[in-house]
Amino acid sequence: MRDRGLTIGSLILTILAVSAVIGVLSLSVSFFLDGRADLSRRRTALQLASSTMGEMISLEIPPDEGITLHSIYSGGDEYSIETSVILLPDNGREIHVGVTTLHGEMVRLDRRLYTGVEYEYRMDNKSV
Question: How many folded domains does the chain comprise?
């Protein structure tokens, strides 16, 4: 009579099947957590861009033409904030604020001001 236990072949197949399931589950969890981290970084970048734009348009004296670049750390991530002001022929100003993370996400806000009055607002969310 034959024993009814597991053979080495069936034991190896069971181990391989369980390993494959664990591998797929760990990849799924990893992708989910990476997606949440990306969303959190984009949300922070948008908040930084909005607050920087708000500071620039609330100035009593319109900002001078030029480009500034600085970095800020928030939540363990580094964000580069670039602002540029372009003088227009009709005495208006275009203000651009771009925030980029080290992971490549970018948020850009653009506003066109005429003598301190907001004329046009556009927001682009782009991934680099």
Answer: 1
